[in-house]
Amino acid sequence: MSEDNSEIIVDVNVFDIIQKAYEEHFNRRKNKLGCSELPFCPRKIIISRLYNIPFENKMIMLHGKIHHAVIQQPNVLRELVKTLYQQLNIKNSKINVTTEKYLIHELLPGKFLEAHVDIDISDFLIEIKTTARPLKYWAKELSEYHVIQLNTYLGLTKKQLGFILLINLRAYFSDIIDFNDVWNKYGCFLPVKFNQELFENTLEKAKKMFILMKHGDFNIKGPVYEWECRYCPKQIQEICNKTKHAQSKI
Ligand code: SF4
């Protein structure tokens, strides 16, 4: 039996809906800083909150989310955890795995640091990152901003070891059919040991940002990485450029 569905017209812009939902999510965060923001330009973070800058197109983030969802599937996680424990030679009969673990840490009264841990396993954490660059760029040296983020999670969860699980999005364009080959070529685990001093410095930076925000002040040095200005939203760049003379060292 065939049904005539021609009268049902659905005109939905899915990406628009996702973008609006993200905007709402970010606009609610005036009293919160995310650990993933902390490694980057503090001027950008402060200006975006003080001026209520609308959310920029973050569709690339959605690719990341899709990969997170795949890795966090119970059957994938089971294999992942088993393999990692074997390779690390850790014997643990009670392994707890939590995905999407949210932590809130009060840095100053009413001002919070928000952590969103991708995978928390009894003995370590895993932070999933997707990249458009070939893995050879990352394998020798972890990027500092990934380390700062994961190190903050380690400090908040009181763990000593974590892994960045890097996935290269070029896997989509690969003509390799064998899944293991794709995985070996386009995914890798990079270990990060907890660094107490880095953790304390990161929390200090976050506290300073909250204090500056309270006074409506973004008299703080930026960017941290030279390339950040190229990707900075236009509205933030304009405000930033007008006030460049006001920059000083944090
Ligand atoms: S333009 Fe550069 S220095 Fe200014 S807020 Fe953006 S990233 Fe920071």
Could you give the topology of this structure?
Layout lengths: L13 H14 L4 E3 L7 H9 L8 H13 L2 H15 L8 E12 L2 E11 L2 E8 L4 H4 L4 H14 L3 E8 L10 H8 E7 L2 H19 L13 H4 L2 H9 L8
Parallel strand pairs: 1-3, 4-5
Antiparallel strand pairs: 2-3, 3-4, 5-6
Helix pairs in contact: 2-8, 2-10, 6-8
Bound molecules: iron/sulfur cluster.
The site of iron/sulfur cluster (SF4) has 12 residues, from helix 2, helix 9 and helix 10.
Number of helices: 10
Topology, number of strands: 6
Bound molecules: iron/sulfur cluster
Q: Mean pLDDT score, rounded?
A: 83
What is the level-2 CATH architecture name?
Alpha-Beta Complex
Number of domains: 1
Distance between the termini: 70 Å
Oligomeric state of the chains?
A: single chain
SSE string, helix = H, strand = E? Answer: HEHHHEEEHHEHEHHH
Helix content: 40-55%
CATH topology: Lambda Exonuclease, Chain A
Rg, please?
Answer: 21 Å
Estimated structural class: alpha/beta
Describe the structure using short key phrases.
Lambda Exonuclease, Chain A; 10 helices; 6-stranded mixed beta sheet; globular; alpha/beta; binds iron/sulfur cluster
Question: Can you describe this structure?
Answer:
With 250 residues, the chain is an alpha/beta fold. It has one domain (33-250): Lambda Exonuclease, Chain A, CATH 3.90.320.10. The protein is 44% helix and 20% strand. The chain contains ten helices and six strands; from the N terminus they run H-E-H-H-H-E-E-E-H-H-E-H-E-H-H-H. It has helices spanning 14-27, 42-50, 59-71, 74-88, 136-139, 144-157, 179-186, 196-214, 228-231, 234-242; strands at 32-34, 97-108, 111-121, 124-131, 161-168, 187-193. Strands 1, 2, 3, 4, 5 and 6 form a six-stranded mixed sheet that branches. A hairpin with a 2-residue loop joins strand 2 (97-108) and strand 3. The longest helix is centred in the last third of the chain and has 19 residues, at 196-214. It starts with 13 loop residues before the first helix and ends in an 8-residue tail after the last helix. Bound molecules: iron/sulfur cluster. Residues 41, 43-44, 47, 222-223, 228-229, 232, 236-237, 240 line the site of iron/sulfur cluster.
